[in-house]
Design brief:
By secondary structure, the chain is α+β, with helices and mostly antiparallel strands. The protein has helices at 3-38, 42-56, 94-102, 120-125, 160-180, 187-198, 235-243, 261-266, 301-343, 352-366, 371-382, 393-396, 404-423, 433-437, 460-475, 486-496, 503-516; strands spanning 59-68, 73-79, 88-90, 106-108, 132-138, 144-153, 200-209, 214-220, 230-231, 247-249, 273-279, 285-294. The protein has 3 domains: 12-181, GAF domain (Beta-Lactamase); 185-308, GAF domain (Beta-Lactamase, 2-Layer Sandwich), CATH 3.30.450.40; 344-516, Hypothetical protein af1432. Helix content is 49%, strand content 15%. A 6-stranded antiparallel β-sheet has the order 3-2-1-6-5-4, sandwiched between helices. The chain has a 6-stranded antiparallel β-sheet with strand order 9-8-7-12-11-10, with helices on both faces. Strand 1 and strand 2 form a beta hairpin. Helix 2 (42-56) runs antiparallel to helix 5 and helix 6 (187-198) packs antiparallel against helix 9. It binds fe (ii) ion. Residues 384-385, 413, 440-441 line the site of fe (ii) ion. Fe (ii) ion is lined by residues 384-385, 413, 440-441.
Length: 518
Amino acid sequence: MGEAAAKDVADLRNKIEELKIENERLAKFIEIGTAICEERDLDRLLPLVMANISKALKADRSTLFLIDWDRMTLWTKFAEGLNHGEIKIHLKMGLIGISVFTRQIVNVTNAYQDPRFNSTIDEATGYRTESVLSAPVFDLEKNVIGAVVLLNKKTGRFKKDDEEKALKMTPILAELVTAIDQDSNEIRSLLSNLRQSIQCERCSLFLLDKERGILFPLVAEGIEEHDIQLSLNLGIAGLVAITGEDLNIENAYDDPRFDERIDQKTGYRTRSILCVPIKDRSGEVIGVLEVINKKEGVFSRADKEILKALSSFVAVSVENAILFDEHNQQFRSILEVLAASIDAKDPLTAGHSLKVTKYAAGIARELGFAAPEIEVLTVAALLHDYGKLGTSDKVLKKQEKLTPEEYDHIKDHVVNTRNILNKMYLMRQYRDVPLIASSHHERLDGSGYADGREAHQIPFMAKIIAVADVFEALTSKRYYHEACSPETAFEILNEEAGTKLDENIIQSLKQYWYNNYL
Ligand SMILES: [Fe+2]
């Protein structure tokens, strides 16, 4: 055989070898994907995968450790044979620590004869470790995020090919772990991985808006900038959303169900489409996942399997995102109803809390506060007068001058606000809400109520609500005064700037007002 021919044969062998590896990778992906389809609960999926790894490597047990850099520990994300609690070990300790720090596989046949071995885990679990194979797990940026540890090879010791197998499996584990912890923003990166796996040009995820009868893009490569929504009664994606069945279209322009208008709008040419529905736990369609233009040939059965596996993944993330959104909306609407119910005690103050909230948020934006901080302020502003629930209507609506006792009774509303809000269960991020809300009548010089706190003792957010509150009261009609113009209100506020109210905050309100109301 000539030299050229020999080289050809060698090339061919290499190609076959590459294909074999690629096939194995795909098979693994599909196997896990299928498991995902059947196993919707991601936390239950990890044990399944770990059990498969143990089986494949003939190990008695497998454990996945993740790194907690803040505490310098490795903790068990999953440990076979450990049903409750978790194991934590110091990052630098033992064979696992070494494999994490050196980023290398550690393969030991007899752990107790290895001076680097740390027997703390054995002592805690009552298990006896003999052979150990510890492989580092990397994230996409090649940072070490943990280690997969296999214990006690059933045939005696872990060999070279076990090491290779372990290394091949760690990327899948990393993907699973990040998928478990992912939020909807990471769907995008999941989809770009998908595009590589399936070898297609574009990949889109549409969510179904049942009320409006449309599909709107969550991630839609190439069409996002065109603000495109898909009608349910048109096109392939619409059909998949309605029927809940997959569609694999080899040549779009030969298919009467294909809607060419998006191509016309975007100047793109669709050839092949593979589209699968995304279904929630109850089997209802909540969106569609679509890949467009297979780079070579048409979409295969394997592509469909991968897409379907991923659609389950996406379904869980989307469901979580929707749930989160709904919770937020519900929380907000309850707060608004509470605020409105207080304002409704008196027709003259109707809408007061909502307006104060709007002004306060406007001030905070002018001052450059970030969304989470504005969110806390908003909740506090909505509920700042909630304690008026306990104020007598007679005093609240009295048109004559209040007696000192009646004035004291009015002042009690902030203490009531604090007491009521302290009883309310609030998420950690809102823990300052009772204090902020109940400090809106405090003044910089200590002349306010209920505690008479001075400037440095008053939460900044409460100072914002104070300014918004005074401004709203001045510009609305009250029993004791007519509504004054914003200009007059600003003059009055200016008189108190620096002594009772914060000067900067008044300036920011002015800016907000003139930017939005003129
Ligand atoms: Fe108040």
